[in-house]
Amino acid sequence: SRAGRAEDVSRLMSMLDELPERRRRIVELHHLEGSTIREVAEILGIPKSVVFDELKAAMVLMKEFFGAGAV
Fold this sequence. Notes:
This protein is an all-alpha fold. Helices cover 79% and strands 0% of the residues. It has helices at residues 2-18, 21-32, 37-44, 48-66. Helix 2 crosses helix 4 (48-66) and helix 3 (37-44) packs across helix 4 (48-66). It is elongated and about 40 Å long. The two termini are 18 Å apart. 8% of the residues are buried.
């Protein structure tokens, strides 16, 4: 339903707001803007391994936030 989707978006935005700034920016660039891991690393001037680790950590938090079957 449209109301359920709006609630999910609202919950996602709340979860993103709680992330440390670098992790939030990485998630935004990769998942919302469609940048590759390499592109995110170049944009932020950090190693690809850090981007990958931050994305993994964010996914763990999202699973905890939304429930294991949601992500």
